[in-house]
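Structure tokens please, single chain.
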Amino acid sequence: MADFSTAPAPPPSLPPPVEPPLSRPQQQPTLKRTASAASFNEVLDESLSRKRMKEEHAVPGPAPAPVPADADNGNAPALPEQLAQELQCGCCSELVYRPVIVAPCQHFFCGSCCVLWIRVSRINNNGGTNCPACRGPSTSVTPFRPLQSIIDVLLRAAPHMARTARERQQADELYGGTSMRIPAPREASPEPDINPSDYVRPCPNCILGNPYGWRCPVPLVDPNIDPEHAWLVEDGTPPGHALCGNCENLLALPSPLTTKCDFCQVSFCGIGVQDRCRAAPVLSQHPHGFSDVGDLIQSSSVYECFNSNTVEVEIMLDYLTTQRITPRHIYIEIVNHIQAQPRAFLPLIQQELFVDIHALPAGTDPDPEAPRNRICRQCAAEVFLYGLRDWFLRERQKGFLEESVLSRKNCVNGAECGQQSDFEHAREFNHMVPYAASPQPDADGENAAAREEAGIPGLVPNSPLPTPDRTDEATTSMPIVSSEAPAVDVPVVQEPSDEPMQP
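Here you go.
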């Protein structure tokens, strides 16, 4: 066996032969010298020639537009205008003021515009609302603080774009800067129980095992089960039953859930829609269609109470907003004032204010002088409108109105002026005065016609008594003012004197 450990190492590889370099003439080393003017001229000529050659070989094309020196100054005024257009409110088309953002669509509006939109939509859309821009369903409205910071910077650069002081004041009165929850639509009233057949369907209390805890003593027969013994429509309303004044469905009169309005004499089932199919106690009821001040703005009946005097209505609305008075508070004060009168609600009953309020015919009032304990929402709205103007007359006497409002001259025609719809005339003169005497029932129970024959004027019910005129000191009669009777001029009788009469 060969021993490879002692094998000789291979010979080292030799490098390839190197060819000798070409012979060059040897240069003598030169010393460094300082730059001279001639050398600088040579370098300058060389750079110019290179630039000239570069321009000759360049591809021809359009020359770039010259940039003016004041380009930045020209764009500066246009930037605030363009930014203001992007930040316009979708409702009022003005620069947004105290912006809010609507969820979930993320559109922004003025806080006050969004409040008014919600109020109007609650009336038109049965209580619910949506985004004013995309009409999508909305759930909440929150302040848009990042956008408010941008608007603050914009107004510092362009103060002329700010809203007027009056607009800001009105917007601040409507929107307080807090988040708002958009309420869901109220439950719609059920469709009337329109029976296409010739039979009357049973009421909810006629059904066996109904969830209301009471069943009619003589329940109606279901026409689908026993048409031979069912009640015919042509026979009228079944005994012990009536139609609800709100949902117009059949109800059982003896049911514990059924309530009756003491003003319109219409019954309500208490089943169809909660708090709407019900006649509540007079002071606990809510007037229909008047939940906040925004509802008063949208109601034409309010302007009719003031004889279409828009100036006086606007003064009242500003007063309600400043004092934070709700229609519910006004209604309670009106009811308390009427109940404090000797005849209470009797003048309203005699004026037939509660007739033909509902689509159903009103019932017969068994005793017009009976006390009134329960009232429906529609009748409560009539009471509210009946006493609204007189309530504001009493409220003006508290002295909370501005001096410019109270210092206006009274119109010579008073509350009966026919020019109240003229804005200039209504703004110049005050028409918030009691109505003139009219032949109507008085507080003491006497008939107005009899008093008119006796020469004693009457007063409109629940209107404040006129203030006696004391400017004429030479008058020979003095007015007697009472809280229960109108003013009557009584001649002054001079007491006999102890001195003898001179011939």
